[in-house]
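Q: Hi! First time doing this. I have a protein sequence and I read that you can turn it into a structure. Is that right? Here it is:
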Amino acid sequence: MIHPKIPLAQTVVQLCSAKGIDHVVISPGSRNAPLTVGFSNHPDIKAYSIVDERCAAFVALGMAQQLKRPVAVVCTSGSALLNYYPALSEAFYSDIPLVVISADRPSYRIDIGDGQTIRQDNVFDRHILYSTNLKQDANHGANATLSSEKHEAPKFLNAERIETLQQEIQTENEEEINRALNIAIAQKGPVHLNVPFEEPLYDTIEAPTVFPKSTKPLLTDQLQAEDIAIEKFRNQWTSAKRKMVLVGVNQPNQIGSEVLESLANDPSVLVFTETTSNLYHEHFFPSIDKIIAPIELSEDRNTLFEQLQPEILLTFGGMVVSKKVKAFLRKYQPKEHWHIDTKKAYDTYFCLTEHVRQQPNDFLASLLNDQKPSSSDYRTFWDGVKTQRLKGHDDYLKSIPFCDLTAFDTLLKTIPDGHMLQLGNSSTIRYAQLFDVNPSLTNFCNRGTSGIDGSTSTAIGAAMVSDQPVTFVTGDLSFLYDSNALWNEHVPNTFRVIVVNNGGGGIFRILPGDKSADYFETFFETKHGLTAQHLCAMYGWEYQSAKDQKTLRDEMNDFYSVSNTPKLLEVFTPADTNDKFLIDYFKFFTENK
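A: Yes, that's right. Below is the predicted 3D structure, encoded as C-alpha cells:
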C-alpha cells in the first residue's frame, strides 16, 4: 500500500478511517497531494474526484445526509477552501456531519507574497462546530528550510531539537484531529481541519511511520438526552383542548407507528407536516399553505385564526418552509411552545417556553403512553376544512391551462414508488408543498440555509451512496447555477432530473414588488432563453423536453425506464401566467366554499 511520506498526512488519513469515514471527496490541487495520495490509496476508503470545490462540498453533503455519518472533503490551499462555505453553512444549520480538510502552507509562508495563500485559520469561525489549525511536522522539509540562505528559518526548526519537537507536534495533532472528528460524529455538524504541509509534497513510502490512536468522544462532546419531569408535560397536554404538532425537516422512519397513531386519533390534536417532514397519516395535515392562505383572504379571518390557534404548540425537526404558518403562530401565539431536540431550539414563533433535550420519538412515546384522547372538536372542524380544500384543489387544477401548478401535479403523481425525491429550493419546494406526495417516497431539500446554489450537487451526492433511485426536481435558475454538478463521473444511471423551466426566477413574480418596473426582469426575474439540452449533450446525459400537458404525459411514460445514462426532462412553462394561476389558486378556495 502506498502512503504519503509526510507524518501529518498519514495521521489525518488513519484517524479518519478509524472513525468510520469511508467516503472522501477530493478536488485536485498540489498542496493537498499528500492527503490525496493517502485517501485514494486507502483500501477502506472510497475517494471521489470532483473538480469544482463548491460542487464537491455539496456532493459530500448529500452523501452525509444519506449515510448519517461524516463524509470528508479535501482541497488545496487558497481560495479553493472558500468555495466550501455554502455547503458548510448548510451542514451547520441542517445538522449534517461534514469534515472539511484543507491543505495549507506552513504559517511562516502566509502573507509573504506566495500564490494560493490566504488566511485559512478559523475561516469558518461562525458556522463551524470545531476548527483546528494543525501543527506542521518538524521532521519534514526541515533540511531544505534550514539550509535556505534566502529565507529565515522558523525558530522551532532547530536541528538539535527536531525529533523531540516532532513527538510533541505529533501528540498535539493527534489530540486535535480526534477532538474534531469526535465532535462531528457526536454533535452531527461540520468541523474543519486546516493541515499545513511543507514541500516536498509528492514523496511516498510503502509502510506508515506513525500509528495514531483513535479516542472515543469525551462526555462533553456527546449530546446527552436529559431526564425530564414527564408528568408536568402530560398534565398540560391532557388538559389542553387544542394542540398543534408542527414538524419541520425530518429524516424518514424517525417516529414510531404507535406514536403516529396516538397523535392521529386524538381529536384535540392537529399534526401539520411538510413535504420534508417524511410523516404520513390520513388524519395529518400536509399542505399547510393550502389551509392558511385562503384564511388570510377570508372576511372572517380573525375568527378562523382564533379557531386554529393552539393552546400548546409542539415542534420537532429542522427548518419549516411555510412562511404562512410562521406568520400565523407569531400573531396567534400558543400559551406553550415546546421544541423537542437534543441539540438546539430556535424561538421561531417568539413564544418558546420549553426546550426538551430528548429524541422526539422518545419524548412523544412517554408523553402519549396510556393517555386517553382528549374530548375536543378541534380536529373535526379542521378536517372539514381540509376536505373542502382537497376538493377545491382538484377542481381548480381541472379549470386552468398548462402552467407550473399543473406540471407539478403531473410530475409528482408519476414518480415511481420507493424513489428518493430531492427538491430544489425557492419555488420548487413551495409548489411541492401544495400536493400530497406519495407516502412511499423519501423527501429531502437543503432547508438549512434554503439556498439554490448546491441543490443539484446534493442530490447527486445522495444518489451516489443510496440504494434508492433518486428523482431531483428543480427550477431552471437553480439548475443552471449548479450545472458543474453534472461534471461528475459517479452519477448512477438511475438518476433522474426534472427541470421546470419558466425562463427565470419565477418566485419573484409571486413575491411583493412592482413587476412592471424596468429593472424587474433583468435584476429580479433574470429572464433568459437558456436550456439544459446542450449541457446534457456535453455530459452524455439523455435529454427530453415538454411544453404542454400532453407532451409532458407522453414524456413521462418512459422517463423512468432503464437507461445507460442519467436522464433529464426539461419542462417549459409560461413565465407570464404562472404567478397569476398560483395567486388565483388560493383565491379559489375562498370564492368557492
